[in-house]
Specification:
With about 190 residues, this protein is of the alpha+beta class. The chain is about 15% helix and about 50% strand.
């Protein structure tokens, strides 16, 4: 799916239920090249991966935020780890995406350059299991570019991701996630 179609679909999700005057006045910021990475540390083995194709859309009028991560876009330093991740753990063919759909909790003046602590509350879905989450992060505004960053943990059991006993010591039960998204004003293609 091309990046413009994906962002347009995120836009549709964010606009559901909005009155037309609000939608017309909304200021949207988006990226199709956000970076989401994770790290798993155990005594037996460290596992890391990065996805540089995360899609994010922020409506600065309503504070609504939508993030879409295609699981197969995670790149691992070891291709066997990547294969196991997609086939055995997150089951990417069956559950191809992880999403967050929520709202920024703070009122921000997006016209003012600066760095602000922020949080967003919403539904975080991985492996087709949704959890209510409030994610803490930072928003940097610089010359009409927004940079969202957040570090948070994901417990595998919260999303019913099973780890076979044979490799239980090689995979951490809580994964450290880092999200870095640079958003620019969205213009319809």
């Amino acid at each position: 799916m091309n990046k413009y179609l994906s962002i347009y679909l995120l836009l549709l999700v964010l606009s559901w239920g909005l009155p037309q005057p609000v939608l017309a006045q909304s200021k949207l910021y988006a990226t199709a090249a956000g970076q989401t990475s994770f790290f798993s540390e155990t005594p037996a083995e460290n596992i890391s991966a990065v996805n540089k194709k995360t899609q994010a859309l922020l409506n600065t009028t309503t504070g609504e935020l939508a993030i879409r991560i295609t699981m197969r876009d995670f790149d691992f330093p070891n291709k066997l780890m990547q294969e196991h991740f997609n086939e055995n753990y997150v089951e990417s063919d069956k559950y191809p995406t992880a999403t967050f759909r929520g709202k920024v909790n703070q009122t921000i003046d997006y016209s003012q350059n600066g760095t602000y602590p922020v949080s967003a509350t919403g539904q975080f879905t991985v492996h087709d299991v949704s959890q209510n989450r409030t994610l803490q992060g930072q928003l940097t505004i610089k010359d009409n570019t927004l940079t969202l960053s957040s570090d948070f943990d994901v417990a595998l059991t919260d999303h019913k991701i099973d780890v076979p006993k044979i490799v239980f010591m090689k995979i951490a039960q809580v994964i450290q996630v880092k999200a870095r998204y640079q958003l620019t004003p969205y213009t319809r293609p």
